[in-house]
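Appendix B. Raw example, untouched.
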Amino acid sequence: MNEMSAGIMPARDGIEGISWDILGQTYVPKQLCESSFSWHATFPPETFVPPHIHPTQDEFLYILEGRFDFILDGAERFAEPGDLVHMPRGTPHGIFNKTDTTIKTLFWVSPARRLYDLFWAIHNLGPNPDPANLVALSAEHEIDFLPPEDA
């Protein structure tokens, strides 16, 4: 992984033109170095990231458009444009678009660890991955999905 270089990433561009389909959302990587990784995400209505933990990374979202609902460390919360959501490593969280509009946000994690590689792997599973495969793959890349609350 290279050191970060100075520059400007145009709004419509991503690293090497990459655009991933991650659980029905579109992720466009914007910056990657050892100390951090950022991506622009578009969440269509009724899409979500199930509750999970990053044991080795701090994660942040800066909300650009729309309203996200969260389960954040066991509490229900929401964030709107201009809000910054911070999720320290080890904090359980789930991210939900419960609205009928698309949400856009900027995510970043620090340090980068293996998340970039995980997104490639999830993207390559196709549009309807087997949940057990997704959970196992994520664990191999330092992301731990939590069991459903009623399990």
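End of appendix B.
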